Amino acid sequence: MDSFEFNKIAGGVLATLMMTMLLGIFSGMVFGPHIPAKPGYELPSAPAQETATNAPEAPAEPLPVLLAKADPAKGQALAKACGACHNFEKGAGPKVGPPLYGVVGRKVASMDGFSYSDALKAKGGTWTMDEINKFITNPKADVAGTKMGFAGEQSPEKRADIIDYLHTLSDNPVPMPKP
Ligand code: HEC
């Protein structure tokens, strides 16, 4: 084989190598490794989980819906916490707080013989189930300056049970709200 023929073969080999290289680069551009934004395995469920934990809590059900499911017997048991300061029996007088017989539908701060805070006297209106619900969620946040020293009941279901029980403490209970 003379040098000319060798050059031809060498040229051919080189050209093939070049083509292979170019193909490699080109396919690397098209099918290159996908680098995840965060190191680690990419699990398809990961982003969904993230949104689930970061999502705001589902809004609480409206009070009338909760009241429809409430249980006054459970409420009576839960109201033992209120009983430290309140009487529930008909005709009973005040303790640390005013008596609660007939409180649903009663005018706010209206029991004779109990010395209400100026804050509660200034609130006005009547104790609807909705107003009681707001008050016992966080008394000091609802009526700034109230002297009701109760931290609040955080569970909407438990509050509904308590209100359902308070609703029974009446000679003439107000109608239940329709869900
Ligand atoms: C640590 C004592 C204490 C506890 C516990 C307590 N209360 Fe009271 N509550 C009071 C006082 C004191 C007042 C009067 C507040 C004022 O004048 O600012 C009051 C006022 C009220 C009033 C307004 C009554 C009116 O005549 O205007 C309602 C309704 C009420 N409480 C419901 C409840 C319920 C329901 C619970 C239990 C979930 C409860 N309270 C637990 C001390 C308490």
Automatic annotation (TrEMBL):
<keyword id="KW-1133">Transmembrane helix</keyword>
<keyword id="KW-0812">Transmembrane</keyword>
<keyword id="KW-0408">Iron</keyword>
<dbReference type="InterPro" id="IPR036909">
    <property type="entry name" value="Cyt_c-like_dom_sf"/>
</dbReference>
<keyword id="KW-0479">Metal-binding</keyword>
<dbReference type="InterPro" id="IPR009056">
    <property type="entry name" value="Cyt_c-like_dom"/>
</dbReference>
<keyword id="KW-0249">Electron transport</keyword>
<keyword id="KW-0813">Transport</keyword>
<feature type="transmembrane region" description="Helical">
    <location>
        <begin position="12"/>
        <end position="31"/>
    </location>
</feature>
<dbReference type="InterPro" id="IPR002327">
    <property type="entry name" value="Cyt_c_1A/1B"/>
</dbReference>
<dbReference type="GO" id="GO:0046872">
    <property type="term" value="F:metal ion binding"/>
</dbReference>
<keyword id="KW-0349">Heme</keyword>
<protein>
    <submittedName>
        <fullName>Cytochrome c family protein</fullName>
    </submittedName>
</protein>
<feature type="domain" description="Cytochrome c">
    <location>
        <begin position="70"/>
        <end position="170"/>
    </location>
</feature>
<keyword id="KW-0472">Membrane</keyword>
<dbReference type="Pfam" id="PF00034">
    <property type="entry name" value="Cytochrom_C"/>
</dbReference>
<dbReference type="GO" id="GO:0020037">
    <property type="term" value="F:heme binding"/>
</dbReference>
<dbReference type="GO" id="GO:0009055">
    <property type="term" value="F:electron transfer activity"/>
</dbReference>
